[in-house]
Zinc-ribbon domain-containing protein (Marinagarivorans cellulosilyticus), 394 residues
Amino acid sequence: MKTFNCSCPGQPSLFFESHTCNACGRVVGITDEFESVQPFDLNEEANYFVIEGVSDRAFKKCKNFAQYNACNGMVDVKLTKEEAATEAEAKNTEDNEYCFACRFNEVVPNLNVEAHVPLWQKMENAKRRALYTLKALPLPLNNNEEDAETGLTFEFTVDRNVKDHFVSKLPHHPDVMTGHNNGNITINLAEADDVARSKTKAAMGENYRTLLGHFRHELGHYYFDRLIANNPYKHERCKAYFGDDELDYQEALDQYYSNGGAPANWPENFISEYAIMHPWEDWAETWAHYMHIIDTLETAQSYGLLFDKNRGTNQTLSDLNLPQDDADDDISASFNRILNSWMEFSVVLNALNRSMGLQDAYPFVLTEPVRKKLSFIHHAVHNKTLLLSETPFE
Ligand SMILES: [Zn+2]
Ligand SMILES: [Zn+2]
Ligand SMILES: [Zn+2]
């Protein structure tokens, strides 16, 4: 994530989630380009917002921003039919009600239940952060209005009672399984409840379980379909790294649970215990880590926190200068630099957390086989599979 600043005196920091500037009180948001969080001035007479120095655009708050503070999206106010000077302009006069991020939503929880609202806000924050990194990478990212066949949609649904932290079942509500199905990502609202999520985390023996992690994992399944499954060459290469994903999924699942999880040596080859269950899960888990690494390093770099020990200066990973349209030709070397920085930086990150009496932020070990899988994903993201002709594991 990048750093953002207000334009008011002292240029205070704005966060990706900010709705207002604490110093000047102006509305703060992000346009459909989804690049930077910035202040907006209200033109009271016309009742729309403008950006300082931008004269040809007007904005209004996304409906979810205006009603629920569930996002900070600012959508363009277009000309009215009467104002349109050309036919092309006249065709394009319908304002979007929702912002870039909210237009991916297919189902949101019942917001008449007051306690759903703060949980849904957390859900939206995690979703928007996941989308931000995707958008900065050279990846296809369309909602199902833009692309009916392969567009992405989200469903945030509920099957249990928010009042008892999602213990009791709601009558007449089918079970909600968090997962991905053909472009549609479902996340159970219970995952946004700290009590419910911590319980599941402890019950599953996991050392990391976050909303953001869920989004990135399920998005991994989505991009497997978009980038790998439809391309026989890439699919073959992928199997060399992640194993044969044409294994029966249900059988693998049954076997995983009847064995009581993964064998003890799983950390040698997998990023998480769950990744061993099926090659699809290995891909999705590794994809999520790739996104965690890129986002966190981008944040560290934006705050000037990546140091080059040898030179005693701030390190700038040009490979991390998002947005990226196209990567370096020497993409393997560039990803090695990214991973080496991550190995160093994640130690600092964990040490900082321990100083605060918190658990490690990144309780994972990146072994050589896991690094290779991450590198495969980096190549897939940048559409550079040809360089992966060598045998991955020898
Ligand atoms: Zn300000
Ligand atoms: Zn929105
Ligand atoms: Zn999965």
